[in-house]
Amino acid sequence: MSDDILVVEDLTVSYGRVQAVRGVSFTVPRGGLVTLVGANGAGKSSIINAVSGVVRPAAGRITFDGTDVTRTPAHALVKGGLVQVPEGRQILSTMTIEENLQLGAWHTTGDRKGEVYERFPVLHERRNLPAGSLSGGEQQMLAIGRALVAEPSLMLLDEPSMGLAPKVVDEVFRVIEEIRASGTSVLLVEQNARRALRAADHGYVLSSGEIVQSGPAGELLQDEGIVAAYLGLETH
Hints:
Strand order of the largest sheet: 6-7-8-3-9-10
Largest sheet: 6 strands, mixed
CATH topology: Rossmann fold
CATH class: Alpha Beta
Shape: globular
Oligomer: single chain
Distance between the termini: 41 Å
Number of helices: 10
Number of strands: 10
Radius of gyration: 17 Å
Number of domains: 1
Helix content: 25-40%
CATH architecture: 3-Layer(aba) Sandwich
């Protein structure tokens, strides 16, 4: 069995005549946490949507757990253990928290709601309330919980800190690191590059749909040239 749970080779994603992603290649080691970082519009979400089967690649190859899944539909990938937490959370706001979690587990025979409720007590307390009554941070926890009940071997997270207060961002990243520590592989797409690189083992820096730099996450964070050119972060 390969040490990489995900292998992306020469991926190209196009919308009409516009190439949003051009020839991108990267891997996610089994049990690892890898992040794709870069400015808004760099192509991060297009990549993660192609991996999850939401967007059909124009070219390239995606291999998940040893199988070519380049043209596999999203629902089949979920059954196989590749589960995405989408940008903007996309919870079903008029349904209850419990119902959102039940939908997340549509294809499983187990019941991991108890584990989710233990991890996120506020969801248990409000499980019979509409999901739309939750705060933004609580909705993000529900979106992550909905992915967890799907029993993922690889979790894709698309901008999980977007629009959240700094204290809530801390909580979200704590949960992400716990998920990884439990053995689930994680591919994290983030505009908050500093936090993402602090959490990850390995990082890929994207600019205009291409990977411009990659390496151990800690090294990327300490490279002032990369930080200044691509990440828009303070260097101190």
